[in-house]
Here is the input.
Amino acid sequence: MTSFYFEHQKIFLSVDCIIFGFDENKLKVLIGKRQMDPGRGEWSLYGGFVRTDESVDDAALRTLYELTGMKNVYMRQVGAFGSVDRDPGERVVSIAYYALINVKDYDSRLLEEHGVEWVDIEAIPPLYSDHQEMVNKARKMMREKIKSNPVGFRLLPQLFTLTQLQRLYEAVNGEELDKRNFRKRVKEMDFIEKTNLIDKISSKRGAYLYRFNNKAYNEDSNFKL
Amino acid sequence: MTSFYFEHQKIFLSVDCIIFGFDENKLKVLIGKRQMDPGRGEWSLYGGFVRTDESVDDAALRTLYELTGMKNVYMRQVGAFGSVDRDPGERVVSIAYYALINVKDYDSRLLEEHGVEWVDIEAIPPLYSDHQEMVNKARKMMREKIKSNPVGFRLLPQLFTLTQLQRLYEAVNGEELDKRNFRKRVKEMDFIEKTNLIDKISSKRGAYLYRFNNKAYNEDSNFKL
DNA sequence: CCAAAAGTGTTCCGTCTACACCCATGG
DNA sequence: CCATGGGTGTAGACGGAACACTTTTGG
Here is the structure.
């Protein structure tokens, strides 16, 4: 009965992670130089192979965990990349995922340990195989997502200023936004809460810190930025 | 050097097709009863396995061709479905694709031959494995796509009436649209061309037939419906 | 003659956009 | 005292939504 399958061929399946971060008012991606053949020394996304005893989603989470030590990270599938020759060594089909993390939560010692670094998404060096395509598609999906879902907060610290939030949206959209219009929109979303705390790092006058209240969001999920 | 790969496991990779059609003012999907184990007799999407010598996209096109005899069909990837137990027989990861075809172009003898039929998307019977999930995601993606890309015409004959076009959008969106507003929008798109021909089948008075002019669209790609 | 589908404009309302000045403070 | 970033409101433009009646003709 299961002989049905054995007319067919098995294929290596991998996952590749587009890990987005936000730092110095720039959208960044975590990439490293490949430490294995084929493609040794080329800039590349971080990836791994899918095991037979885990789902593809789990493989992506595990791979991210290996690299960052983080769990409960926002990850979404970008899609399958399946050209015959995309991997020069073997036939490997890869499922790309993007992840959103707060750069400050990521122990920077792990960066060196894994030989990866944050690179401005506008200045990515040539990447291995089809990884640039993956990044492009991931960015496009993320840009759409962030408009109507409060996922951008995952790229920021728990407490953030409105200017930080605006800079994030500017980096993602690749264009400047009007400060007053932006703040007007924020003000209409009650789940973006003003705290009494003031950030004095980035300005002399100081700026109020805000917080995303997830519980309040679940009650009134009207998000639009 | 390539020994790097052989620590890892290969997996069966398949493609599944969500084939959309439009008929009797309803959005339909092509499904059939599985003729093989596991899941024999259950309603299912049409699919096939990915070969090592073809890209995943090509596998989807080939599978669609096997079923319909059609080439140059609009197909887009929906995503990878990779739960461990999604296939009861073996570990199989499947990449779903949706396709848009004009029902009238499809030789209905082939329907019987392959044991598939058009089913109203609002009345799909329980489907094998995770196929309903695939349909849901495909429909969502298609609904977004059709708003800003002129792909809906692939579900219609070359010549169509504005009412047909409107019914298509109503079926996809699942809600009725205002006739005057709809026509106003159509009128602003010069690449939706009025012909001199009149359709007398669907009304006594007769309705002008329209045509999508792809060349004109390429010069002014402002589509919004 | 009537049922059934085709065709046609205007008004209103809400949303988005553009835009400029004062404030607080550290150095 | 001044450079730097923080913070605030309004008016006009634009786009989307609501809405009803006349036309044609096959049966």
Chain B has six helices and ten strands.
